[in-house]
Amino acid sequence: METNKGNFIKQHPVVMNILYIIVTAIILSWLASLFLDFWTDHGDERIVPNVKGLSYSQAESVLKVADLTVEISDSVYDSAAKPGTVIEQSPHKNAKVKPGRIVYLTIVAFSPKTVTIPDISNVSLRQAQSIFEGLGIKKIKVVEVESEYQDLLLSAKYNGLPLSAGARIPVTATITLEVGKGLSMDELDSLSMDSLSEIPAPDELDLE
Predict the structure, then answer these.
(1) What is the mean pLDDT of the chain?
(2) Residue 86, CA distances (Å) to 46, 94, 114, 171 in order
(3) 47-108 shares its CATH topology with 114-186
(4) DSSP code at position 72
(5) d(Cα 95, Cα 102) in Å, to the nearest integer?
(6) Section 86-104 average pLDDT
(7) Rounded CA gap, 19 and 36, in Å?
(8) Is the pLDDT of residue 196 over 60?
(9) Exposure string (b/e) for 78-96, b if CB count within 10 Å is 16 or more?
(10) Regarding the domain delimited by 47-108, which CATH topology (the fold level of the hierarchy) does it fall under?
């Protein structure tokens, strides 16, 4: 029996080398798996606690006890909520993560976001509204003032003061847009008559 086995090995060296390679690969894969499990703390997990509704300092303490770290990823202003309160977290509560994993928090901002006012001179009411809405400003009041230029933006004010290019205001601000009222038909007729009255009569012209 041993002789037959020895003869098979001698007669089929290529086949035996392939078998050796396969066995070696299996053993190496098994050892690598064990090493990776050890290196990545396989089976050592943490459950992410729910920190929504807590203050940032409270959330930080709770996550530290759970062997997790914390980082603020975003802030959102909400006048109805207490500043510094956690409103979102990632990963979500009860998620299984590795020790030391960063939990990203979104908190209520302590003050509203501010935006920079661009140059808004010589624009129409529609353009001005589009510009301010694009900045995130939703509270816009329109006031018509006497002017022959209808719907032309004459002034944009915040807290009663005119806004100039480069000014910074909170997105929660209420903006007052003063636009031209335009002339009525009677005013246009009157303006036309005034223009005609300025034309000298034929007998007043110097025809020499």
Answers:
(1) 83
(2) 20, 16, 21, 21
(3) yes
(4) E
(5) 12
(6) 94
(7) 26
(8) no
(9) eeeeeebbbeebeeeeeee
(10) Trypsin Inhibitor V; Chain A (3.30.10)
How is residue 50 written in tokens?
């729910």
Q: How many helices (H) and strands (E) does the chain have?
A: 5, 11
Non-local CB neighbours of 181 within 8 Å, separated by 6+ positions: 144, 145, 146, 147, 150
pTM above 0.70, yes or no: no
Count of all residues that appear for the chain in the document: 208
**What pLDDT is attached to residue 182?**
76
For the structural domain made of 114-186, what CATH number should be given?
3.30.10.20
Inter-residue contact 103 to 72 (CB < 8 Å): no
The identity of residue 77, as a single letter, is: Y
Helix pair 2-11, 13-39: axis angle to 10 deg: 90
Residues 46/96, Cβ–Cβ less than 8 Å: yes
Task: Specify whether the backbone of 161 is left (phi greater than 0), alpha (psi in -120 to 50) or beta.
Answer: beta
Return the percentage of the chain with pLDDT > 70, whole number: 77
For residue 171, pLDDT over 80 is answered with yes
